# Entry
Amino acid sequence: MGLLVQNGEIVTSESRYFADIYVEDETITKIGPALQAPAGTEIIDARGKLIFPGFIDPHVHIHLPFMGTFAKDNYATASKAALIGGTTSFIEMCCPARKDDLLASYYLWKSKAEGLSACDYAFHMAVTRCDDNLEAQLRLVIDDGTASLKIFLSYKGAFAIDDGEMYRTLQLAKKLGAMVTAHCENAELISRLQQELVSQGRTGPQWHEPSRPEFVEAEGTGRFAAFLEATGASGYVVHLSCAPALRIALDARKRGVNLAVESVLPHFLLDKTYADREGVEGMQYVMSPPLREKENQRTLWEGLASGDIDTVGTDHCPFDLAQKMMGREAFPLIPNGLPGLEDRVNLMYTYGVKRGALSLHRFVDALSTRASRLFGLYPRKGTIAVGSDADLVIFDTEYRGTISARTHSMNCDYSAFEGVAIEGRPAVVTVRGKVQVRDGNFVGEYGRGRFLRRDAMQAG
Ligand code: URP
Ligand code: ZN
Ligand code: ZN
# Structure
């Protein structure tokens, strides 16, 4: 059965116009005024609503063994939350521990999604160790359609790789045509600063930010850029949080380094004072890079508006209050990460577009189109065009509501944005032509989500 969306206003990263959208077999086949459809076609009236391409979150964690525990979501809870929030595809970080086999981990991560996800998904494959099998294993992963990698310069003794391993990984990425995403903080400096602070009795969550100051992130960003320059690989800095790191990334870009920048939802709206709160309330806000001095937010919003910052992800990584309490004796033991997958679109619309910090087109670009282009999904995803997947977000700009853990779908007993107002939310969300969300409720089908194969870039 076809689907006809009538009377809505289509907004892409480049254009805005009134037209109907007709969908057959999961794909948009017609866009135009007053389209007719055969009897039996499902009709959605989008009068008064904006129609966006399905949003793409380029950075989430779902299955994640980390810091002695596991992130809380699974593919059912995460994909439901994503869809309610207007995200129709996400890219999960596949993060094996250093001791684990890369290929076995890749298949394990995929198995967690298969048959369960309600939205489409892809992976960035983390390289957490370099051994003699690396090239052969990466070839298999990339041939399978996962053409982007992840490296961590942070998390000493867990995910971090050293400079030699970074060089080898970037060389291989260049050869095999894979984009490399990187967490850019200096692992050694963090480890030393953590030890010093704890030995001085500075053990609360408010000391998390001083243990990873801005220069630690700037150093990591500059080092990653230098290694990209040396190897000719293409890179993407994940969750960039502060002005010094952005300056270094942009300088590298000016020199011709192929480097894209992502910032994530919490850094636009929350600052380091949240981690000053007493007890577990402060622990809720421990993530890395940490929440920063508020003045960085202006840099991030301006960088986003200008396109210097390419994308907005969430770095969704929920740990519940009991898990956060694992760090009650010392902040380095607090599991790092915040929930946010469900809230990104509504919050960036409210505090970006509605407050005049972000044009509607840049909003669509940063939350959907740019990620689809960077990670090999365009034009299947990231736009509304004939031939594209019918992932549509029919957005109600009149909706008014408040974020709360009591009503969200993420599997986490707190919200980092508890009580924050939103002005707009998705009324209807489709995944390849099937309605998965209506009026804030999941009405869809688990297992409908598909693994998104992405081709390698032209290697050279
Ligand atoms: O604090 C964070 N960001 N947790 C998730 C792991 C990572 O570094 O992305
Ligand atoms: Zn990270
Ligand atoms: Zn992350």
